[in-house]
From TrEMBL:
<dbReference type="InterPro" id="IPR035906">
    <property type="entry name" value="MetI-like_sf"/>
</dbReference>
<keyword id="KW-0812">Transmembrane</keyword>
<feature type="transmembrane region" description="Helical">
    <location>
        <begin position="81"/>
        <end position="105"/>
    </location>
</feature>
<feature type="transmembrane region" description="Helical">
    <location>
        <begin position="20"/>
        <end position="41"/>
    </location>
</feature>
<dbReference type="GO" id="GO:0055085">
    <property type="term" value="P:transmembrane transport"/>
</dbReference>
<keyword id="KW-1133">Transmembrane helix</keyword>
<keyword id="KW-1003">Cell membrane</keyword>
<feature type="transmembrane region" description="Helical">
    <location>
        <begin position="151"/>
        <end position="174"/>
    </location>
</feature>
<dbReference type="Pfam" id="PF00528">
    <property type="entry name" value="BPD_transp_1"/>
</dbReference>
<keyword id="KW-0472">Membrane</keyword>
<protein>
    <submittedName>
        <fullName>Multiple sugar transport system permease protein</fullName>
    </submittedName>
</protein>
<dbReference type="GO" id="GO:0005886">
    <property type="term" value="C:plasma membrane"/>
</dbReference>
<feature type="transmembrane region" description="Helical">
    <location>
        <begin position="254"/>
        <end position="275"/>
    </location>
</feature>
<feature type="transmembrane region" description="Helical">
    <location>
        <begin position="195"/>
        <end position="220"/>
    </location>
</feature>
<keyword id="KW-0762">Sugar transport</keyword>
<feature type="domain" description="ABC transmembrane type-1">
    <location>
        <begin position="82"/>
        <end position="275"/>
    </location>
</feature>
<feature type="transmembrane region" description="Helical">
    <location>
        <begin position="117"/>
        <end position="139"/>
    </location>
</feature>
Amino acid sequence: MTAVAPHVTVRKNRFSAGQAVRLAVLIVGLLLVLYPLAWVIGSSFKSDAEIASNISVLPTEFTLSHYAAGWNSFDVSFTRFFINSTVIALLTVIANAVSCLIAAYAFARLRFPMRGLWFAIMIGTLLLPGDVLIIPQYIVFNTLGWIDTPLLPLIVPKALATEAFFVFLMVQFMRGIPRDLDEAATIDGCSPYGVFWHVILPLSRPALVTTAIFSFIWTWNDFFTQLVYLNELEDYTVPIALRLFIDSTGQSSLGAMFAMSVLSLLPVFLFFVAFQRMLVEGINTSGLKG
């Protein structure tokens, strides 16, 4: 017993030293990643002169004036921009969740001609950069008279299951649901619609939440698509409104822009925190981990 005890002590010390090194590396990496965000938050409380001269996160003179000034900098207040972003993001979440769930159920559970080919084509669309589709989409929407309408070009495509990533995620999740449940429901008299409503839909909640979270975050932060289709100031969303702080001469109101940028992060942060547990569960059970 007396000969074993020192050996155990040495191994514990080496393990603790390795843990300390890894922890130090992680902390340094975390600080490097978080510094730009912390600097923007801290700069939103600095004066304009201090923003350009002080690289420290903490302000020497604390002020809240940028928040009030930024909120009412334009003819339309940021209240309207936040409402526009919220409406577009929530409608996109609903459209993506419903359409992608139905499409995924068809690919995962139903039998129809050339199902494998259609699924491969859908997966192939993931390889296309989104910017490639902007011009063809603009021509189609212009022909339909949807340009300058705030919702149609941004929401209707989402209701047609055009987000192949979410369809693929849900297909992977549904493939993990035992088919015995489908067969049991069929024996009880359920049609394919009944199986979808009573079996697949309740069990697909983690995948739906994952789709909802990513749809909300991507739509809330989207700039280019909304810039193309929203041309009136009253229809602008938060990302486009933040661009207004930099005028055509290159002059910018950095303090006000940083203040509104910080506020624009809050809805995404709260949405992620509220559904974080189900997001991890949905990714793990859909085979997209790692």
